[in-house]
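Changelog-adjacent note: as of this version, every example in the card shows the full chain rather than a window. The one below runs 202 residues end to end.
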Amino acid sequence: MLISETPHMAAKAAFYAVIGCWWLFLLTFWLRKRPPHAQEATRDWSSLVGLALQAAAYFIVWQHPLQRQQFSPVASGSPTAQWGFAALTVAIAVASVWLVNAAARRLGKQWALAARIVEGHTLIQDGPYRWVRNPIYTGMFGMLMATGFAAAQWLPLLVAVGLFLLGTWIRIRSEEQLLRGAFGSQFEAYARKVPALFPGIY
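Full-length structure tokens:
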């Protein structure tokens, strides 16, 4: 069933709050202080295939953001439930932006779009990296979910989640192959102790 022509205030508030979080998300990378250039030792361009799948997932949830259909059993309930769902959506977006920002700052010169190892590369295990091995991807997934809750329908969101998780798996496999080659048993010990993407799941 379609919701009314004018979206409910809770849905509208969540939608624009998520847009604000997207601006903060992008500014994390646009305005971050550029570290001194690091000599690249190894790079794996196959990780860009995963990046393309992640981008496709984001495109799917943003296709028709202002024509949102009622897809959530929670949001279809009372005004209290609708505002609660909106608050949850915004909380996911805010937490995701914070996680991505903290992880990118901790990575410094080691951050890159394509998987790579630079001269003097270190295996970071503190900050957000003590919770998951790939906190930037965890935050990106959170932004996908928040965007889907605010702007998509169930079916497109499920397709987007599938594409995103596949793309993320490709990127993690590519990056961690390089880390295993560079750090050997040190990385293996870290991987046994800390999950790749979601605490207690994977």
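Structural remarks: Confidence is low (pLDDT under 50) at residues 1-6, 70-74.
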